[in-house]
Design goal:
The chain is an alpha+beta fold and 387 residues long. The chain folds into two domains: 5-234, P-loop containing nucleotide triphosphate hydrolases (Rossmann fold), CATH 3.40.50; 247-366, Nucleic acid-binding proteins (OB fold (Dihydrolipoamide Acetyltransferase, E2P), Beta Barrel), CATH 2.40.50. Helix content is 24%, strand content 35%. It has nine helices and 20 strands. It has helices spanning 55-63, 105-115, 121-131, 147-159, 177-194, 205-211, 229-234, 239-244, 374-385; strands spanning 17-26, 29-39, 44-48, 70-75, 78-79, 90-93, 165-169, 197-202, 214-219, 222-227, 249-259, 262-267, 270-275, 284-290, 296-298, 307-320, 324-331, 335-342, 353-359, 364-366. It has a six-stranded mixed β-sheet with strand order 6-7-8-3-9-10, sandwiched between helices. β12 (262-267) and β13 (270-275) form a beta hairpin. α2 runs parallel beside α4 (147-159) and α3 crosses α4 (147-159). The protein is elongated and about 75 Å long. The structure holds adenosine-5'-triphosphate (ATP) and magnesium ion.
């Protein structure tokens, strides 16, 4: 059995991954809280969330390095919850990659293949190194490589095994921005080339959105929302998703009535409208949101059907970012509103009186909740540490 990859459950193509009500509690702290999700075979799935939200713990559970407190894990329809780590059809590239220091890069990559007695391990290792553009350094030792290069070796070492499921825990963390972008494209190419199922963990929202077919946004051990990147961005379902994935202007108010398919919302200083189909709540307390690039800035009160107009307000800050300009406009009672405008050469100055408008179809409605607070997570971590 050891001669063939499939004998150890390793596959030539990807496999579905299913988490069914998975919970992981450490003494006094629940790191993963009743998590259920399905990742279809051959897809590129990103798990996105702030530090401490339970991403690595989730991967460790899937890899078999932690035992779930409750729930089941299935790969390719097979329950692997009680399967030993080394018997799972899973490879992991960890946040901190560990290469064998005494072996060359080539030997490092070929190691797993040799152990499993796969034919032509060195040839396959060279191919994997070529994928990450490091074949020319095959004879070096790990300490003769930069951090980013070592990270790419760790990737090659995982990909070469053709696991049905590849878990990537911030594998691009040590790379500079340019190399990171380049590796993102390459990783995506490797994934579609070899057809494996990738579960990629990151706290970089841009990385998650550009690379993944499906993004799951995780917060405090739970998945808040899951979907195609554009879907999550255009129609966030929670305050956390609206602010963690890109920026949002948010207004807390009350639904006071409806006009056809539109909810009428009273917020301090304005009456806003949001399509009922784009709102997670239909009555009572509501947060209305709109993305900054959906806003237009006007020097005179605009009259436009189908558009929400607020103002007048005053520009209190502008920052020029080349292709766009970011404005902060303060409107009495409504507060500070962020606007991204494409740069057409006409920059509104700080102190000018302006009105803002957006298409009603771009607004979204969310349940009211307290703003996301980074310190909350560190407080929770601290509470765990002192126990
Ligand atoms: N062995 C453990 N015992 C107690 N608490 C733990 C243990 N391992 C992790 N935790 C806690 O579980 C939470 C989730 O940790 P995890 O490593 O999964 O976070 P993460 O989302 O990967 O964060 P990061 O982006 O910083 O890597 C953290 O608050 C952490 O302190
Ligand atoms: Mg982590």
């Amino acid at each position: 059995m050891a001669n063939e990859p499939s004998g150890r459950g390793f596959a030539q193509s990807g496999a579905d991954l299913e988490l069914v009500h998975v919970t992981k509690s450490f003494p006094g702290f629940t790191a993963v809280d009743d998590l259920s999700l399905t990742i279809p075979a051959g897809s590129f799935f990103a798990l996105l969330g702030p530090s401490g939200c339970g991403k690595t713990t989730t991967l460790r559970l899937i890899a078999g390095l932690e035992e779930p407190t409750a729930g089941k894990i299935l790969v390719g329809g097979k329950d692997i919850t009680n399967t030993k780590a080394y018997q799972r059809p899973v490879n992991t590239v960890f946040q901190s990659y560990a290469l064998f220091p005494h072996m060359t890069i080539l030997e490092n990559v070929a190691f797993g293949l040799k152990r499993r007695k796969i034919a032509e391990p060195l040839k396959l290792a060279h191919e994997a190194l070529a994928l990450v553009e490091l074949d020319h350094l095959a004879q070096r030792k790990p300490q003769q490589l930069s951090g980013g290069q070592q990270q790419r070796v760790a990737l090659a070492r995982a990909v070469v095994n053709r696991p049905a499921l590849l878990l990537l825990d911030e594998p691009l963390g040590a790379l500079d921005l340019k190399l990171r972008r380049q590796m993102q494209i390459e990783l995506k190419a490797i994934q579609s080339e070899v057809g494996l199922t990738f579960l990629h963990v990151t706290h970089d929202q841009e990385e998650a959105m550009t690379m993944a077919d499906t993004v799951a946004v995780m917060n405090k051990g739970k998945i808040e929302q899951m979907g195609a990147p554009a879907e999550l961005y255009e129609l966030p379902h929670t305050r956390f998703v609206a602010t963690f994935l890109g920026q949002s202007n948010l207004f807390d108010g009350q639904v006071t009535g409806t006009e056809g398919d539109t909810l009428v919302v009273s917020v301090p200083g304005a009456t806003l409208h949001v399509s009922a189909a784009r709102s997670q709540v239909s009555a009572g307390a509501i947060t209305v949101g709109v993305r900054p690039e959906k806003l237009e800035i006007h020097r005179e009160s605009p009259k436009a059907a189908g558009r929400q107009v607020v103002g007048p307000g005053r520009v209190i800050d502008t920052s020029f970012a080349g292709v766009s300009t970011q404005y902060v406009v303060t409107v009495p009672e409504l507060g500070d509103i962020t606007v991204f405008e494409q740069n057409d050469g006409d920059i509104v100055a700080v102190g000018e009186e302006v009105w803002l408008s957006w298409s009603i179809g771009h607004a979204f409605g969310l349940p009211i909740e307290a703003p996301f607070d980074e310190t909350d997570l560190s407080t929770r971590a601290l509470a765990t540490a002192v126990q």
